[in-house]
From TrEMBL:
Cross-referenced InterPro entries: Acyl_CoA_acyltransferase, GNAT_dom, NSI-like
Keywords: Acyltransferase, Transferase
Any GO CC annotation of this UniProt entry: cytoplasm
Residue ranges of domain N-acetyltransferase in the record: 7-140
PANTHER family, A to Z: ACYL-COA N-ACYLTRANSFERASE, GCN5-RELATED N-ACETYLTRANSFERASE 2, CHLOROPLASTIC
Official protein name in the record: GNAT family N-acetyltransferase
Organism the protein comes from: Hydrogenophaga aromaticivorans
CDD domains for the chain: NAT_SF
GO MF term set: N-acetyltransferase activity
Length: 143
């Protein structure tokens, strides 16, 4: 598997990225929404195989205190190959020097992230656009 890594959003096909998110599955995110999110992220990883986008990840960071790793997505055909692990490792390396590195995971994926040194936070809280759906999917406790 010959992979090409990039952090550039120049000439990125945002519709292709949205298709990857649907396939991963990480939800139905609009291309315009993804363009804003990735443009505003300090760190980005795009991984292509034979020109096809097969993995991505990003981190919002302030350069010193906090880096938030989010939206790691891998095509189902490449899941289980170590690509997701490599993307997280790259984002962690880029985030080195921050006092804290945070992420939230799809419920059930915590053991994967624990291998990198992540630990469950006791004080993390969130407000989701759709609180009921977030509770249904296991991201937050019921009120």
């Amino acid at each position: 598997m010959k992979l090409a890594w990039s952090d550039s959003i120049d000439n990125l096909d945002w519709s292709e990225l949205a298709a990857l998110y649907r396939a991963a599955p990480l939800g139905n995110k609009l291309p315009a929404t993804l363009q804003v999110a990735f443009t505003n992220s300090m760190f980005r990883c795009f991984v292509r195989e034979n020109g096809v986008l097969v993995g991505v990840g990003r981190a919002l960071a302030d350069g010193t205190d906090c880096s938030y790793i989010c939206d790691v997505a891998v095509m189902p055909s490449h899941q289980g190959t170590g690509l997701g692990k490599a993307i997280v490792a790259k984002l962690l390396a880029l985030s080195a020097g921050h006092k804290k590195i945070i992420l939230y995971a799809v419920p059930g994926k915590e053991p994967f992230y624990k291998k990198f040194g992540f630990r469950r936070m006791r004080t993390a809280m969130a407000i989701f656009e759709n609180q009921a759906l977030a509770a249904e999917r296991g991201y937050i406790d019921e009120p």
